Amino acid sequence: MRVLLTGHRGYLGSVMAPYLIAAGHDVVGLDSGLFAGCILGPDSSEVPSIDADIRDVRQSHLVGFDAVIHLAALSNDPLGSLAPDITYDINHHASVRLAHLAKDAGVQRFLYASTCSVYGSAGEDLVNESAPLRPLTPYAESKVRVEEDVTALADSGFSPVFLRNATAFGFSPCLRADIVLNNLVGVAMLTGTVRVLSDGTPWRPLVHARDIATAFCAALVAPVNAVHCRAYNVGTEANNVTVAQIAEAAAAAVPDSTVAVTGETGSDPRSYRVDFSAIRTAFEGYTPQWTVADGAVELYENYVRWGLTEELFTTRFTRLAHLQTLRTSGRLDESLRFLRVGAGHG
User: Fold this and answer.
1) Which end of the chain has fewer CB within 10 Å, C or N?
2) How is 236-253 classified by DSSP, letter by letter?
3) Is there a contact between 99 and 117 (Cβ–Cβ < 8 Å)?
């Protein structure tokens, strides 16, 4: 299958591209290069690529593809709150426009990377795909809007599938240090203390980047009539954990580190536990392989192996800080567009 993978140089894309190639697909990437330099260790994700901002994609970019896997987005709640208009422009409007163009170009499958954070504050009960959507951030709200708008495009020739990923974790060549387990393992390594600013009680569903990749690979080849216009939570109930439990896993992976739950920010309203039974039924044999504890060990080993420093951790691998650096250095304008051709690839 010929597949266009948007955001192939990002945190998930740089893990997913090799999986798609190993499965026998002909993969072409599309990426603006915002995070092209955010690499720790070897990068095995290089594929033929289209250098373009998702907001500038043309129909000609999409001709000849059997499927689009759409990962490209501003994937950060703090950034979404800082610049909600840009978040909606990129995550919502550009994503829906991409789906329109893909349909017009004859693309038959459209896999969209959504998020379990669309459930917002759901309490103690396990939520499945039919639960009410209560997004609490511009990032989550943008995902809900895309699901609604792309659903309206579905027909016999255009089949979207919405994969609601749990909070990702795990090592990736294009590292992110601003997602919870990745962050806490880094803090433990660099400071010796895992600091939890909330009271530690909110629930989070977690899933390894590699397990996300295998879910997308399964969705790509699933019978169309079985998955057409369906949403699936991506993860496993075993990785529904509290923030305090995530902190304990991080400390257990890093020698001589301790946990400090300060509670200074109180209880985070984003708390939800997720039911993942639908994806196991739809994609026979799909079972996430990575536990939170195993992911914490993997992260620590790679942080040490590839020489993660505090400066890299807080700047290059923290999305908001990295984008602010690109802005202040004159490489990005206020809309997060590069100011000169090729600026994203230096």
Assistant:
1) C
2) -GGGEEEHHHHHHHHHHH
3) no
Query: HSE on the CB side for 68, CA within 13 Å?
Result: 33
> Tell me, what's the pLDDT at 76?
66
Q: Report which DSSP code applies to 207.
A: E
Q: Give the tokens for residue 144.
A: 């809900």
- Please identify which residue in the block is written with the tokens 């001589």: 256
First-residue to last-residue Cα distance in the chain = 32
Evaluate whether 118 touches 234 at the Cβ level (below 8 Å).
no
Q: How far apart are CA 319 and CA 323, in angstroms?
A: 6
- Whether pTM > 0.70 for this model: the answer is yes
Beta-carbon contacts of 3 under 8 Å, excluding residues fewer than 6 positions away, are 20, 25, 26, 27, 28, 65, 66, 67, 68, 69, 220
- Here the tokens at position 13 are 């894309």
The residue type of 90 is I
As beta bridge partners, residue 166 has: none
pLDDT mean values, one per 10 residues, the chain (346 residues): 97 96 97 92 84 96 98 77 82 98 98 95 86 91 97 98 98 95 97 91 95 98 96 98 96 97 76 94 92 98 97 94 90 87 41
The answer to whether 288 touches 207, Cβ cutoff 8 Å, is: yes
**Under 8 Å between Cβ of 320 and 314:** no
CB atoms within 10 A of CB 100: 14
- Give the whole-angstrom CA distance, residue 10 versus residue 170: 13
For residue 303, the SS3 value is helix
Tell me the sheet residues that pair with 163: 113, 232
Instruction: List CB contacts of 159: < 8 A, sequence separation 6 or more.
Output: 108, 109, 110, 224, 227, 228, 229
Number of helical (H) and strand (E) elements in the chain, helices listed first: 14, 14
Token readout for 343 is 């600026």
